[in-house]
Automatic annotation (TrEMBL):
Database matches in Pfam families: DAO (PF01266)
Gene3D superfamilies: D-Amino Acid Oxidase, subunit A, domain 2, FAD/NAD(P)-binding domain
GO molecular function (one): oxidoreductase activity
Protein name: D-amino-acid dehydrogenase
UniProt keywords, alphabetically: Oxidoreductase
InterPro entries assigned: FAD-dep_OxRdtase, FAD/NAD-bd_sf
Family: Belongs to the DadA oxidoreductase family.
EC numbers on record: 1.4.99.-
SUPFAM superfamilies: FAD/NAD(P)-binding domain
Domain FAD dependent oxidoreductase: 2-399
Native source species: Rhodoferax saidenbachensis
Length: 419
């Protein structure tokens, strides 16, 4: 088949690669001048088969309104600003009832584990040399009660995911540079989670995809979709406009693009959540993290990526204002000094990046047929897009090729929101 993949982030690149492996003729259309200029640019790099990334557990106690307020605070740390955001938060809280949580978490863990397997397979088959480290510590402050952790621990256990509860002293054996005064009383250790450089992987895989015949067209905006039996796209590139038909089109655009029909966009509860990542070079490796550390209370993560440290946090719901919140950025600097003082070399330059995650209210991405003939989606991966990219791409390719999929797809199909 002649297939267009819209979007050259990590998801679009792996999808194009998998489709090309299946023998399709693939063209990737990207509005930016280069690959991975969106959410895949400088993310935290955590690949978490445990599916324990932040923003997945709302508050379960209390009456409806109290639950909503506390859940929203956990998710966004900034109050909702519009009726649309409030409506989405209500849906998010409702879809994350304890019963749904266990079911969705299980499906997420299956997809995340499958993705980690695919990542290892692709990196091995293509001999990709990647910046990588193993294990993640989730730091617990005194305020975290075993009750709050119970559902997470139970679903991890049910999936056979190793997760050890450690004392502060035991945690320091994995991360010896954690400062003596760092505010934590214990930690959860997830040896199966890892940090791997997402952008580096995507850029190297792009070359492999090109070797398989995938064409990449940058500075090309998809302006319109004509959804017929043979779908076509109106493209704008370097001031020129053209319409091109394909046998199939896959949108890997992170969020739902405007070119999709309004009925589809309104039906799917997708919201943008913005976050920040500081990248600094390591000054003294002995003072730096070995792998991944996250303070569960604040949501701030501090990860090692080769010769750099990435510190990430913040979660702003809604439209992109394009402005950085100084208070959140300062919180990241403070966290790095609090947990790993002396680790960073600030004078050599610090990159402050604000990126956008597109989150579906039930916490799972949209993978598969969109409901429009010849049009599929592989987007809405939220805070776990890098974790889920490789498995999502293989599932998508199998669905397009009408093959059996390695996992059940009921929790993933975009049509799950059809009324
Ligand atoms: C602060 C932060 C930290 C994160 N940390 C982690 C982490 O540790 N682990 C993890 O698993 N995930 C993490 N994520 C999530 C992960 O980065 C994303 O889910 C993932 O990168 C999404 O990849 P993507 O290819 O779907 O989207 P993107 O990388 O955003 O790519 C989409 C592409 O589509 C293009 N596009 C859109 N519309 C059009 C159009 N009309 N025409 C042409 N091109 C178009 C865009 O230009 C863009 O290049 C993090 C995200 C953020 C923001």
């Amino acid at each position: 088949m002649k297939i267009a993949v819209v979007g050259a982030g990590v998801v679009g690149i792996v999808t194009a690669y998998e489709l090309a492996l299946d023998g399709h003729s693939v063209t990737v259309l990207e509005k930016a001048a280069a690959a991975c200029e969106g959410a895949s640019f400088a993310n935290n790099g955590v690949v978490a088969p445990s599916f324990t990334q932040p923003f997945s557990t709302p508050e379960w106690h209390g009456n409806g309104f109290a639950r909503l307020v506390r859940s929203a605070r956990r998710l966004t740390r900034t109050p909702w600003k519009s009726g649309q955001q409030l409506k989405w938060l209500r849906r998010w809280t409702k879809l994350h009832s304890p019963q749904n949580y266990t079911e969705v978490q299980r499906a997420g863990q299956q997809l995340a584990a499958y993705s980690a397997e695919r990542l290892t397979h692709i990196a091995g088959a293509c001999q990709l040399e990647l910046e990588r480290s193993e294990g993640q510590l989730l730091l617990l402050r005194a305020a975290t009660t075993p009750d709050e952790l119970q559902p997470v621990l139970e679903t991890l256990k049910a999936q056979g995911i190793v997760c050890k509860l450690l004392s502060a002293e035991e945690a320091r054996q994995h991360e010896p540079a954690l400062h003596a005064a760092a505010p934590f009383q214990g930690a959860l250790w997830l040896p199966g989670n890892q940090v791997t450089n997402c952008r580096q992987f995507a850029l190297l895989l792009r070359q492999e995809a090109q070797r398989l015949g995938v064409q990449f067209r940058f500075n090309t905006v998809v302006e319109q979709l004509h959804a017929h039996a043979t779908p076509s796209l109106a493209l704008a590139s370097d001031g020129e406009r053209q319409t091109q038909s394909f046998d199939h089109i896959v949108f890997c655009t992170g969020g739902l693009p405007d070119v999709l029909p309004a009925t589809l966009r309104q039906r799917v509860p997708l919201m943008a959540l913005h976050g920040y990542v500081l990248s600094v070079t390591v000054r003294e490796p002995l003072n730096a993290p070995r792998s991944a550390v996250q303070d569960l209370q604040s949501g701030v993560s501090i990860n090692r990526l080769g010769q750099r440290i990435r510190v990430s946090g913040g979660a702003e719901l809604g439209e992109d204002t394009g402005t950085k919140d100084d208070a959140t950025v300062n919180q990241l600097y403070r966290a790095l000094e609090q947990y790993y003082p002396g680790a960073a070399n600030y004078p050599s330059g610090t990159q402050v990046w604000r990126g956008t995650r597109h989150l579906v209210a039930d916490g799972m991405p949209l993978i598969g047929p969109s409901g429009l003939a010849g049009v599929s989606l592989n987007l809405g991966h939220g805070a776990n897009g890098w974790t889920l990219a490789c498995g999502s791409a293989r599932l998508l390719a199998d669905l397009v090729g009408a093959k059996d999929t390695a996992l059940p797809t009921a929790h993933l199909l975009p049509t799950r929101f059809a009324v």
